[in-house]
Amino acid sequence: MPKDSGAYPEKQIASEPGPTRNQLIVFGFLMLTQMIATLDNQIVATALPTIVGDLGQAEHFSWLVSAYVLAQCAVMPVYGKLGDLIGRKTVVIAALVIFTIGSLLCAASWSMTSLISARILQGLGNGGLLVSVFAVSADLFAPRTRARFQSYLSFVFVFGSVIGPTLGGFLTVTLGWRSIFLVTAPMGLIAIFGFLHFMPQHKSGRQPIIDYAGALILAMTVTTLVIWVDSARLFDGFATPLSLTLGALVLAGAALWIRVERRAPEPVVPLTLFAQRNFALLVALTLCNGAISVGLITYFAYFLQMGVGLSPSAAGLYFIAITIGVSSGALIAGRLMSRDVHFTRPLRAAFSLCALVLGLIAWLPHDMPQPYLAGLFVMQGFSMGLAMNAIMLGAQLSAPEGDVGAATGAISLVRTVGAALAIAIYGTIIALGVTGLETASGLSGSEMTPALLETLSEETRHEVVRLYSDSFTALFQTASGFALLGLVFACLMRR
Hints:
Largest sheet: none
Order of helices and strands: HHHHHHHHHHHHHHHHHHH
Radius of gyration: 22 Å
Shape: globular
Helix content: over 70%
């Protein structure tokens, strides 16, 4: 093979023509679809307390979130594989239809049980959207052009993540919580119309044999894994009989899934993908990325309010800093990779910077001047943006042409699982860190909220903030460790 000095040694690339008008139109609908998927993930968060207050059954609160995430995880690889077999157009339209029906059912829910059921249906659709936008872009554009356009998808993801909670809060106050589920429904109908009229149908010509057994076993194994990692909170420890049983089920499920996939004519996640050194390392790296981007960002607002002592409005301003950083990182990474920079270079830079910034946030005093802390948040966002594009593009280039969808689905699944596992780990760190604190009002540290914090005396408030600050130090040290582990995986990749 001739020596390749460009960015894409996995696939030799000839000169790439510019995107056509129809490709740009389809990509516009892809950006709309990415916004739908991202908003739905974020817009519900601020309305959850209102929903629980209206529908009751607060004991089912956690399932309103967990059932949705687990539904997403269960179907991501399936959507990716179906796209490879029957064409992306059919799959993305089906996901939009399922999601839109789920949105309407959520708005019409009359009880917590009916809302959870509708959210599961929404999750089944949204899992397909998150996979399809990147798989369709792989069909639309050759790798160098794709690197630039996927950076725009990453920007939409970040923009939606930032405005989602704010929009959700505004709609809940002004129009009621049901309105948050109606925002994305007309957007979904527009996207369906656009894909029907402008997106060409590409079929692989392969017999569409669906690996139902592999998909079911994978979904059950991932669900059990996420629940098991949260054993410290759910079952009071990992040594309890129920936790040990779940751990054994995870191992048994993984072994059974590998056995089934080896024999399946069209496995939902082809094991041959893992024979590619770069792809296997990208899977491990994506777990770390999910933990330090999607998983960690869930705790940023909590950290700013409880560990720094900022008001909710002041804490919200810091997400502008993260948005600036992520947008800049994603766009720069896309430009670099479109100009022959190998995807491993942005990954190594991203995880190096991320480990440094998280280490600084952990070790520096949390009462540092706010401009300094905002600067660290910009740098953290920049590292996240650098990695976003490089991971997905690297996975698509490492996979055989007929398995690009399966590779995209696998990476999307692993990122979500990494986030879910990290959220459980971070939650355990905070819960253990505030154990034993009891305020003069009789509230324990684990029951403290930003609103209650404001009602405490200055001395008690300072003590609570100090304790949370120490707990978040341990959390950011753990996240920095994930970043260092990701850097090791990135350095092991071959060009």
